[in-house]
Design brief:
Chitinase A, domain 3, two-stranded parallel ribbon, 41% helix, alpha/beta, Helix Hairpins
């Protein structure tokens, strides 16, 4: 079993807990009812609805198991103090393509499209522990890219 810490903000932990509760109390009974109804349709060996419902159940149970492990291993982080980049810090960086703003979060909360990058991502790793004014180098697929930390909130 994976006992690796899962770094979460308090908000992220609440979201994962809400998702888990929804899956257990709403989705699990709904899928069970689908399986039950499909069984009533006759021979399950040639029943596409039954097979589809079983696949949905398998996916659902996998997601529930993942969430349970993440929440069991959760370490809720406090927002960074603003001096150095850490998990929970909102960081403004300037690079060759302009200024970007990121919030550094644990991998379970990462959503790059929403400006939430993982502390384990290449940019996150490069930023961790640095302070305002530092230049950091990120190893990108096209080669190294240098960024300057403009601010940390």
């Amino acid at each position: 079993m994976n006992n690796k810490p899962v770094y979460l903000t308090a908000e992220g932990q609440a979201k994962l807990q809400a998702e888990l509760t929804e899956l257990i109390t709403v989705e699990r009974p709904r899928v069970a009812a689908r399986i039950h109804d499909a069984k009533l349709d006759g021979d399950i060996s040639e029943n596409a609805e039954y097979e589809d419902a079983k696949q949905e159940q398998s996916f659902l149970e996998g997601r529930i198991a993942t969430l349970e492990v993440q929440l069991r291993n959760a370490e809720v982080i406090e927002p960074a103090n603003g001096d150095r980049v850490g998990i929970g810090a909102k960081v403004v960086i300037k690079g060759p393509e302009g200024t970007e703003t990121f919030t550094v979060v644990g991998s379970a909360e990462a959503a790059p499209g929403d400006g939430r990058i993982s502390n384990e991502s290449p940019v996150g790793v490069a930023l961790m522990g640095h302070k305002k004014g530092d230049k950091v180098v990120v190893q990108a697929p096209a080669g190294p890219v240098t960024f300057t930390i403009v601010s940390i909130n």
